[in-house]
Design brief:
- The protein is mainly α.
- It has one domain.
- Helix content is 76%, strand content 5%.
- It has six helices and two strands; from the N terminus they run αααααββα.
- The chain has a two-stranded antiparallel ribbon.
- A hairpin with a 2-residue loop joins strand 1 and strand 2 (95-97).
- Helix 3 (39-58) runs antiparallel to helix 4 (60-76), helix 4 (60-76) runs antiparallel to helix 6 and helix 5 (78-87) packs antiparallel against helix 6 (99-119).
- The longest helix has 21 residues, at 2-22.
- The chain is globular, with a radius of gyration of 15 Å.
- It starts with a helix and ends with a helix.
- The relative contact order is 0.15.
Length: 122
């Protein structure tokens, strides 16, 4: 089971990372207004970080560091989740975001992603 979850985590973060470059406008509305002057840089750095951390999860020698890097990245994304909740109802691509979905992402999905990375650290 653990190898399957490892491969899924790697694929998840590779997809998410490349999506920052393929569809950068998807992420722009998620960046809080006090960071808008760095929207492009934040988006690109996030994408690179997700790709690099996913690739580092492949190798046992870098897996623990990559796991903690993913956790740090997820913690760094918390202000974006809070901002999504504050925005209320808005479209994220073709998806309608609501405060309820924002709370679910922040309080349920985000901790699962953190636990998933932590569990695969060894």
């Amino acid at each position: 089971m653990k190898p399957i979850l490892l491969y899924l985590l790697i694929a998840f973060y590779l997809f998410a990372g490349f999506n920052h470059f393929i569809n950068p406008r998807f992420y722009s509305p998620l960046i809080p207004p006090y960071l808008t002057q760095w929207t492009y840089s934040i988006n690109m750095i996030s994408g690179v970080a997700e790709i690099v951390l996913a690739l580092c999860m492949i190798f046992p020698s870098t897996r623990m560091l990559a796991s903690y890097g993913i956790i740090a990245l997820l913690i760094a994304f918390i202000p974006a989740h809070i901002y999504m909740i504050q925005l209320g109802h808005f479209n994220l691509g073709k998806f309608q975001m609501t405060p309820t979905i924002g709370w679910i992402r922040l309080l349920m999905i985000h901790p699962v992603l953190i636990a998933w990375a932590y569990w695969l650290r060894n």
